[in-house]
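1st attempt posting a full record on here, be nice pls
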Amino acid sequence: MFKKVEDGERAFDAILKQIIANIEAGDLKAGAALPAERAMAEAMGVSRPAVREVLRALELLGIVKSVPGGGNYITENLDTWLIGPLSILFRLNNGYLRQNQQLRAALERESALLAARKCTPLDAAELWMILARLDAAEDEKDRGKLDKELHQKIARIADNPMLYCVLAAADQLTESIIEGTRDYIMKKNQSASVVDEQHHKLVEAIINGDADQAEQAMSEHMETIEQYMEEMQQEQQRERR
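the predicted structure (as C-alpha coordinates):
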Protein backbone atom coordinates (compact mmCIF):
# COMPACT_ATOMS: atom_id res chain seq x y z
CA MET A 1 0.00 0.00 0.00
CA PHE A 2 2.89 2.38 0.80
CA LYS A 3 6.37 2.68 -0.65
CA LYS A 4 9.61 4.38 0.29
CA VAL A 5 9.65 8.14 -0.07
CA GLU A 6 12.16 9.17 -2.73
CA ASP A 7 15.21 11.22 -1.83
CA GLY A 8 14.57 14.93 -2.15
CA GLU A 9 10.82 14.59 -1.62
CA ARG A 10 9.32 16.60 1.22
CA ALA A 11 8.08 14.02 3.73
CA PHE A 12 4.75 15.73 4.41
CA ASP A 13 3.86 16.04 0.72
CA ALA A 14 4.96 12.50 -0.09
CA ILE A 15 3.02 10.91 2.78
CA LEU A 16 -0.10 12.92 1.98
CA LYS A 17 0.15 12.03 -1.71
CA GLN A 18 0.37 8.30 -0.96
CA ILE A 19 -2.58 8.30 1.43
CA ILE A 20 -4.78 10.23 -1.03
CA ALA A 21 -3.68 7.95 -3.88
CA ASN A 22 -4.75 4.90 -1.87
CA ILE A 23 -8.15 6.47 -1.20
CA GLU A 24 -8.60 7.27 -4.90
CA ALA A 25 -7.55 3.74 -5.90
CA GLY A 26 -10.03 2.22 -3.45
CA ASP A 27 -7.33 0.55 -1.36
CA LEU A 28 -8.45 2.72 1.54
CA LYS A 29 -12.24 2.80 1.55
CA ALA A 30 -14.61 4.86 3.64
CA GLY A 31 -14.50 3.60 7.23
CA ALA A 32 -11.32 1.60 6.66
CA ALA A 33 -8.61 1.53 9.32
CA LEU A 34 -5.25 2.99 8.41
CA PRO A 35 -2.12 0.99 9.25
CA ALA A 36 -0.48 1.87 12.57
CA GLU A 37 1.72 4.97 12.51
CA ARG A 38 4.83 2.85 13.11
CA ALA A 39 4.01 0.54 10.17
CA MET A 40 3.34 3.49 7.86
CA ALA A 41 6.54 5.22 8.91
CA GLU A 42 8.63 2.09 8.31
CA ALA A 43 6.99 1.38 4.94
CA MET A 44 7.68 4.91 3.68
CA GLY A 45 11.03 5.35 5.39
CA VAL A 46 9.96 8.45 7.31
CA SER A 47 9.63 9.38 10.97
CA ARG A 48 6.50 8.72 13.04
CA PRO A 49 6.11 12.46 13.82
CA ALA A 50 6.00 13.13 10.06
CA VAL A 51 3.20 10.57 9.63
CA ARG A 52 1.38 11.97 12.67
CA GLU A 53 1.56 15.49 11.22
CA VAL A 54 -0.13 14.38 7.99
CA LEU A 55 -2.80 12.41 9.85
CA ARG A 56 -3.57 15.43 12.02
CA ALA A 57 -3.96 17.60 8.91
CA LEU A 58 -6.29 15.02 7.32
CA GLU A 59 -8.28 14.87 10.56
CA LEU A 60 -8.77 18.64 10.49
CA LEU A 61 -10.02 18.32 6.91
CA GLY A 62 -12.47 15.63 7.95
CA ILE A 63 -10.89 12.91 5.81
CA VAL A 64 -9.43 10.94 8.71
CA LYS A 65 -11.05 10.19 12.05
CA SER A 66 -8.78 9.50 15.03
CA VAL A 67 -10.07 7.24 17.81
CA PRO A 68 -8.08 7.54 21.07
CA GLY A 69 -6.46 4.20 21.69
CA GLY A 70 -8.16 2.78 18.61
CA GLY A 71 -6.11 4.06 15.68
CA ASN A 72 -6.98 6.17 12.65
CA TYR A 73 -9.80 5.60 10.16
CA ILE A 74 -10.91 7.03 6.84
CA THR A 75 -14.13 8.94 7.50
CA GLU A 76 -17.25 6.88 6.84
CA ASN A 77 -18.89 9.63 4.80
CA LEU A 78 -16.37 10.98 2.31
CA ASP A 79 -19.16 12.90 0.55
CA THR A 80 -19.26 15.45 3.38
CA TRP A 81 -15.58 15.84 4.21
CA LEU A 82 -15.61 19.43 2.88
CA ILE A 83 -17.98 20.57 5.63
CA GLY A 84 -15.14 21.35 8.06
CA PRO A 85 -12.90 23.34 5.67
CA LEU A 86 -15.86 25.14 4.12
CA SER A 87 -17.18 26.09 7.56
CA ILE A 88 -13.80 27.56 8.48
CA LEU A 89 -13.57 29.47 5.18
CA PHE A 90 -17.12 30.73 5.64
CA ARG A 91 -16.36 32.10 9.11
CA LEU A 92 -12.96 33.58 8.21
CA ASN A 93 -14.62 35.59 5.45
CA ASN A 94 -17.44 36.69 7.77
CA GLY A 95 -19.89 34.98 5.45
CA TYR A 96 -23.58 35.52 5.88
CA LEU A 97 -26.14 32.74 5.66
CA ARG A 98 -27.59 34.41 2.59
CA GLN A 99 -24.21 34.13 0.83
CA ASN A 100 -24.07 30.43 1.61
CA GLN A 101 -27.62 30.02 0.32
CA GLN A 102 -26.56 31.73 -2.92
CA LEU A 103 -23.72 29.21 -3.26
CA ARG A 104 -26.14 26.37 -2.60
CA ALA A 105 -28.59 27.75 -5.18
CA ALA A 106 -25.90 27.81 -7.88
CA LEU A 107 -24.92 24.22 -7.10
CA GLU A 108 -28.55 23.07 -6.98
CA ARG A 109 -29.25 24.56 -10.42
CA GLU A 110 -26.31 22.74 -11.95
CA SER A 111 -27.35 19.50 -10.22
CA ALA A 112 -30.87 19.78 -11.65
CA LEU A 113 -29.54 20.41 -15.16
CA LEU A 114 -27.16 17.42 -15.03
CA ALA A 115 -29.78 15.19 -13.40
CA ALA A 116 -32.20 15.85 -16.29
CA ARG A 117 -29.52 14.67 -18.71
CA LYS A 118 -28.64 11.53 -16.75
CA CYS A 119 -31.90 10.41 -15.12
CA THR A 120 -32.56 6.67 -15.64
CA PRO A 121 -35.95 4.91 -15.30
CA LEU A 122 -34.84 3.65 -11.88
CA ASP A 123 -33.87 7.17 -10.83
CA ALA A 124 -37.25 8.43 -12.04
CA ALA A 125 -39.08 5.82 -9.96
CA GLU A 126 -37.09 6.74 -6.85
CA LEU A 127 -37.78 10.45 -7.38
CA TRP A 128 -41.53 9.78 -7.69
CA MET A 129 -41.42 7.64 -4.56
CA ILE A 130 -39.74 10.36 -2.49
CA LEU A 131 -42.16 12.95 -3.85
CA ALA A 132 -45.17 10.76 -3.02
CA ARG A 133 -43.93 10.29 0.55
CA LEU A 134 -43.37 14.04 0.82
CA ASP A 135 -46.91 14.75 -0.37
CA ALA A 136 -48.37 12.27 2.11
CA ALA A 137 -46.32 13.36 5.13
CA GLU A 138 -48.04 15.58 7.65
CA ASP A 139 -45.40 15.90 10.35
CA GLU A 140 -43.16 18.86 9.55
CA LYS A 141 -39.95 17.12 10.66
CA ASP A 142 -40.71 14.20 8.35
CA ARG A 143 -41.44 16.60 5.51
CA GLY A 144 -38.15 18.39 6.14
CA LYS A 145 -36.19 15.12 5.99
CA LEU A 146 -37.95 14.09 2.78
CA ASP A 147 -37.33 17.52 1.26
CA LYS A 148 -33.63 17.09 1.96
CA GLU A 149 -33.71 13.51 0.65
CA LEU A 150 -35.26 14.72 -2.61
CA HIS A 151 -32.52 17.30 -3.16
CA GLN A 152 -29.80 14.80 -2.26
CA LYS A 153 -31.23 12.29 -4.75
CA ILE A 154 -31.19 14.90 -7.51
CA ALA A 155 -27.56 15.71 -6.69
CA ARG A 156 -26.64 12.02 -6.83
CA ILE A 157 -28.38 11.56 -10.17
CA ALA A 158 -26.22 14.43 -11.49
CA ASP A 159 -23.31 11.99 -11.04
CA ASN A 160 -20.65 14.59 -10.25
CA PRO A 161 -18.83 13.69 -7.01
CA MET A 162 -17.21 17.12 -6.66
CA LEU A 163 -20.51 18.91 -7.14
CA TYR A 164 -22.23 16.61 -4.66
CA CYS A 165 -19.44 17.03 -2.09
CA VAL A 166 -19.49 20.84 -2.15
CA LEU A 167 -23.29 20.90 -2.18
CA ALA A 168 -23.44 18.57 0.82
CA ALA A 169 -21.09 20.90 2.71
CA ALA A 170 -23.07 24.01 1.77
CA ASP A 171 -26.33 22.28 2.66
CA GLN A 172 -24.97 21.25 6.06
CA LEU A 173 -23.93 24.82 6.80
CA THR A 174 -27.43 26.15 6.19
CA GLU A 175 -29.35 23.14 7.51
CA SER A 176 -30.62 24.90 10.63
CA ILE A 177 -31.74 28.02 8.76
CA ILE A 178 -33.35 25.92 6.01
CA GLU A 179 -35.36 23.97 8.60
CA GLY A 180 -36.38 27.24 10.21
CA THR A 181 -37.41 28.60 6.85
CA ARG A 182 -39.62 25.58 6.17
CA ASP A 183 -41.31 25.99 9.56
CA TYR A 184 -41.92 29.62 8.66
CA ILE A 185 -43.35 28.69 5.26
CA MET A 186 -45.77 26.23 6.83
CA LYS A 187 -47.15 28.98 9.07
CA LYS A 188 -47.88 31.19 6.08
CA ASN A 189 -51.16 30.84 4.19
CA GLN A 190 -50.79 28.43 1.23
CA SER A 191 -47.00 28.92 1.24
CA ALA A 192 -46.25 25.23 1.60
CA SER A 193 -48.32 24.43 -1.49
CA VAL A 194 -46.11 26.77 -3.52
CA VAL A 195 -43.00 24.80 -2.55
CA ASP A 196 -44.77 21.48 -3.18
CA GLU A 197 -45.80 22.64 -6.66
CA GLN A 198 -42.22 23.66 -7.37
CA HIS A 199 -40.99 20.21 -6.31
CA HIS A 200 -43.45 18.56 -8.72
CA LYS A 201 -42.44 20.85 -11.58
CA LEU A 202 -38.78 20.15 -10.88
CA VAL A 203 -39.13 16.37 -10.71
CA GLU A 204 -41.26 16.25 -13.87
CA ALA A 205 -38.63 18.25 -15.79
CA ILE A 206 -35.83 15.95 -14.64
CA ILE A 207 -37.76 12.79 -15.47
CA ASN A 208 -38.69 14.17 -18.90
CA GLY A 209 -35.03 14.93 -19.60
CA ASP A 210 -35.72 18.65 -20.04
CA ALA A 211 -32.47 20.16 -18.75
CA ASP A 212 -33.45 23.79 -19.41
CA GLN A 213 -36.79 23.41 -17.64
CA ALA A 214 -35.17 21.56 -14.73
CA GLU A 215 -32.61 24.33 -14.28
CA GLN A 216 -35.37 26.96 -14.45
CA ALA A 217 -37.57 25.09 -11.97
CA MET A 218 -34.72 24.74 -9.49
CA SER A 219 -33.84 28.41 -9.93
CA GLU A 220 -37.42 29.41 -9.10
CA HIS A 221 -37.42 27.07 -6.10
CA MET A 222 -34.17 28.50 -4.73
CA GLU A 223 -35.40 32.07 -5.25
CA THR A 224 -38.53 31.24 -3.25
CA ILE A 225 -36.47 29.78 -0.41
CA GLU A 226 -34.22 32.84 -0.35
CA GLN A 227 -37.25 35.14 -0.26
CA TYR A 228 -38.65 33.35 2.75
CA MET A 229 -35.23 33.41 4.44
CA GLU A 230 -35.05 37.18 4.04
CA GLU A 231 -38.63 37.65 5.21
CA MET A 232 -38.07 35.43 8.23
CA GLN A 233 -34.86 37.21 9.20
CA GLN A 234 -36.59 40.60 8.96
CA GLU A 235 -39.32 39.41 11.31
CA GLN A 236 -36.71 38.08 13.75
CA GLN A 237 -34.93 41.46 13.71
CA ARG A 238 -38.20 43.28 14.43
CA GLU A 239 -38.88 40.94 17.35
CA ARG A 240 -35.47 41.75 18.87
CA ARG A 241 -36.19 45.49 18.88
